[in-house]
Every structure is written in structure tokens, then in C-alpha cells.
Amino acid sequence: MTPALAEAAIRARMSPLSSESLPLRQCVGATLREELHAERDNPPFDRVAMDGIAVSSEALRRGQTHFNIQATQAAGAPALRLESGDNAIEVMTGAILPLASDCVIPVEQYQVSAGRASLHDKVTAKPYHNVHRRGADGGAGARVLAAGTWLRPPEIAVAASTGMARLQVSRQPSFMILSTGDELIEPGEPILEHQVRRSNAYALIAALRARGFARIGNEHVLDDEPMMLERLALHLITHEVLILSGGVSMGKFDLVPKVLAKLGVQQVFHKVAQRPGKPMWFGIGPRGQAVFGLPGNPVSTLVCLLRYVIPAVAAAMQNLPTPPEILALAAPVSFDFPLTYFLPVAVEHDGWGTPWAQPRPTNGSGDFVSLTGTDGFVELPPGPPPIRRDM
User: Fold this and answer.
1) pLDDT for 324-337, tens place per residue?
2) Among 84, 164, 270, 347, which one is least packed by beta carbons within 10 Å?
3) In sequence order, what DSSP letters do the residues of 339-375 get, joined into one string?
4) What is the pLDDT of residue 337?
């Protein structure tokens, strides 16, 4: 099972998530499930682009350099009309362009004394200079957001401009993160020499929240089969996506696959030809619940979450597909194992602004400290041929 086949197998079994209507202010991080169209032309009128005076460009062409200040056009006020070419109307950024005027002289290019504006030397302006023309960014009825768009702050602003107070978006799934293992101790609790801190769950929660997910449960389950059966049975009823960390390898106490089978979770695959994260497990519960069994080593856990879990849930939410980003390596890499290699990298930019993936290999899948300062992973084809900087 290659990573590409594993990804395809997961997506083929994920159930599409339903949609819900939410107030606009609650939609950041959500996936849009309807198309949005412009309510009006954008901009809806000839809009003043900077503070200054609105005048007739024809008067400037004739050589006029002094104008009587007729009035002030504020943003949000109905359009005034320029009474003659000898006059100017003070205008504010965002205001509608006064009628009979067709250009704006910025405040830095004139001075006002006794109600009269005098232009500095060599000031000229063509028609609609410093004016954002009506409809320049799109006409009324044009599609501005497609269904499947991930709603970030810019998209929220666009949605607000269409006049929509509520949006139809994908409903977020409910996640349950379960760490398995007798050796795990919560941060803040006393710890013995043979124990380790329960850190994977906090990395998983942080990664999901960074992607905008909010409905996230969290529990620690011991390597005890009756206890595991009880807790997993409950969470399969109450949650749609289960993410287990640990207990999926080949050890005597790796009970997760056995317990899930007893609970009616159908195994789709177990193990992927990759490093780190080879023991990954995926299955589907009796009611279509997605169950991801991630290896317990922290680097493996994060790799599998980012490579499989988050993209699969995004697809179930009907996000528009995002093509993988291609980066050049900043240094050669070699490895001997015939598996797809997920290599941690830090993205650096050279003097021309070109991004390079600087390898940051770890000392194994348990070396989570080496992940600090990295930006993600690159996916390299199976070894052993070296991966050169110029490939």
C-alpha cells in the first residue's frame, strides 16, 4: 500500500458531511457549500481612491491651477454635482465621485487658502485619475466565491460584500483523539523514570485547531482490553472521526486493531509503505465513522495526520482540491530504505525570494524535538537512489 493508494482508499470510504446554515461571523475556517454572486457592480459606483479634490480633467488640460472649494463629498453621502470647471469638491477616500468631475488631485499636490485650492507646479491628471471605476473588479451577478471554498478572512469579507448574513457551509465533524499506552503521563502530573509525557494528543489538537476544527474530544486509554472496548464503543456512538495514537503496531499490547474488529469497525488497510508512519491503520465503523489508527511515535503521528487525516476530512467537507506544493531541496538527501520518505523541512528563501526546502531530518520517529522550527514535510520517492538538490 503506497501513500497514494492509501489516500485513495481513505477518500473512497469517507462519508460526505452534511451542510448547515451559520451566521457570517461564525463561518471563518468553514467550507462554503453554495456559490456566491456579486450583489452589485464592484465597486458599485465610481469610487474616490484617495483624499483630495475632485475636479474636471478638461479644466486641467486648459491649464487651470486654481479652484474654488465648492463643498465636501463625504464617504456614504449621495453624490454632489460640480457646478463649474472653476470649482473643486473636497472628497474623502471611499466617497462617490461627484457628478461632472472625473479625476481626483491628492491632498499632497495642492494647498488651500481662503476657500481656494492652488495646485503645485506641474500637476496634471487624466480622466478618472485616482478613481476606482464602477464595475472594475466585477459586474453584478458575477460569481465571487465557488462552492468548496475554504473561508478565510478575505473570503469572509467577500461574502459580506454580497449581502449574505448567513452562509450554507459544511458541518464540522466531531473528533475524538485517544492516546493509548500505560506509559503515558499528563503534563503537570508527577512522572517516574520509565514513563513519558502524553504529548501526541496536544500536537494533534493543535494541528486540527490550526485548520479551523473546533469539535475535538480528548482521552487517554490504558493498554487494557476491557477498558479499551468500553471507551471505544462509547466514542464510536458519539463521534464521527476517531484518531488513535499508538497501539497499532505488532507488539503484545498493541490492542487497537483487535478491539476495533470486535466493535464492528471494518479494516480498510493496515500498514503503508512509508517512513515514518508505516504501521498506520484505517477503518470504517458500523455507522460510517472514520477511524484512523496512527503510530504512537510523535513524528509518525504528525506525518499521518497531515498526510491522510486532514485531507480526508477536507474532502468529506467538499473542499475544493488543493494541488500539492512542489519545492526544490536545498541540500542532497539519501536514504537506503525502499519506502516513501517523509522528510521534515524548513522553508527558506534565497536572495531572489525563491523558496527552498531545507532538510531537517530527525533522529528517528520519536525525535519530536527536531520538529521545532520546521514548516512541514516533503514526500520523497522510495530509496535507495540519492535525491539531489537539482532534482
Assistant:
1) 899 999 999 888 88
2) 84
3) SEEEEEEEEEE-TT--EEEEE---SSTT-GGGGTT--
4) 86
